[in-house]
Amino acid sequence: MRYGGAIMEFANSIPNEVKSAAETLRQAGFEAYVVGGCVRDLLAGITPSDWDAATNASPEQIQAIFPDNFCDNKFGTVTVRINGVFEIETTPYRVESKYTDKRHPDTVEWADNINEDLSRRDFTVNALALGYIKEGKETKIELIDLFGGRQDLQNKIIRAVRDPEERFLEDALRMMRAARFAVTLGPDWRIEEKTKQAIVKHSGWMKAVSQERIRDEFLKIIMSPRATEGVELLRELGLLEYIIPEILEGYGCSQNKHHIYDCYHHLVKSLEFAAKKKFGMHVRMASLLHDIGKPKAKSGDGPNATFYNHEIIGAKIAKKILQRLKFSKKDTDKIVLLVRYHLFYYNVGEVSESSVRRLVRNVGPENLEELLQVRMADRIGSGCPKAEPYKLRHLRYLMERVALDPISPKMIKVNGKDIMEVLGVSSGPKIGQILDILLGQILNDPSANNQDWLLAETKRLGALGDSDLARLAVEAKNQRNQIEIKRDQMTKKKYWVV
Fold first, then answer.
1. Cα angle, residue 65 at apex, residues 61 and 68 outer, rounded to 5°
2. Residue 265 pLDDT > 70
3. Among 180-189, 198-207, 416-425, 475-484, whose mean pLDDT is lowest?
4. Is 486 exposed, middle or buried (0-12, 13-18, 19+ CB in 10 A)?
5. Which of 128, 185, 302, 381 has the fewest CB atoms within 10 Å, i.e. is most exposed?
6. Mean pLDDT over each residue of the chain, to the nearest integer
7. Which of these CATH numbers, 3.30.460.10, 3.40.50.2300, 3.30.230.70, 3.40.50.720, describes 2-155?
8. Three-state SS across 336-405?
9. 491: exposed, middle or buried (C-beta count within 10 Å: 0-12, 13-18, 19+)?
């Protein structure tokens, strides 16, 4: 179906750069349509994040019209740059042949018209095209919708173009994309029944998809506000088995008196909280994987079941999962670290500062906030009413306290050896007293912490009598103690602890 004037309202939402590129193609004698997801988003009132165009020009012709571009030689996509910045992925109309590997077309052939091009797309809401037509002296915009995509958009339905089994046979990743669109396009979206049945029937085709492509689709689901619904939908469709089958080992695996959910639902509930709080990718993945070692570590059953060392087992499993999905080493190491140390023990008054220092050293100061976020997600996923109770706030306070540089003579840009050389004396109480006094002076005036000034001040202090030097040293120590007390009080106030 083609819509003419009634669709003109959407023309104002198309960026001038896109209009300019389309007009340049038309003036060169070619057709030009905005296609796919950007049209879907426009009709839904969403600002598209990227723009795609289709044309009857060949890749070589597109490049000749837009010299400042580059070409994906495999599929003929040319990235057209407008004003050197704005990019439009521009592809000739094409039809695709048989997909032997269920991932890529065996060959790519150019189509004659936009209708053929739209017929090869995955879902009806993505098989939409907007283009300009001439009616006399007027230029109007038209929407081409051959498969009821606009109606499906209004009804929030993901439906495969034509025969879903054929679409998924062409590219098995489309099954996962169906789940992704169902959760990322907004609430109340659903997969049409025939399309859903085809996914369940052929979920095993996911074995043919590269791990990198699976990872990228999975992360789009994980990073959406409805991440938990996405994981659950993948499970219902039979796709999760080919993404992270280890998670399914926790389905129906009961826990103990500290949890109200089985292992699987505990993990997805933890992810739900992480998504709700808009935590980052590392925390979301760690929240989903933090207890993945529990089924293997479980001993006994009922309220007193135990899961000793599940965090160590889980870290090893998480590493294998992330490596299999081709996560970067940096991302893998961080997520595994959060899984490994998520079970840290802390009770106010029971755990010493040395234990907290050890945790900070093991995890790294730069990872502490994310570790605490995983712990909060873990708590909510366990059915606890509060994500951050007093003891976690107290731990935050203690972590910051031990991470602060201590106020000590090591901060001064001279040392005991320098003082002995200037004064021509051997070691003794006088050296420590002068260091204490110098420290007090740079606390009052940090700009005084330079070697020339400090050595000159050392000569002055060295000329004082023993009693005067001792008095000044005591005053400097008292000043330092007051600063440390004030700093500790401010840190406590920051985390509402006493």
1. 110
2. yes
3. 475-484
4. exposed
5. 302
6. 86
7. 3.30.460.10
8. HHHHHCCCCCCCCCCCCHHHHHHHHHHHCHHHHHHHHHHHHHHHHHCCCCCCCCHHHHHHHHHHHHHHCC
9. middle
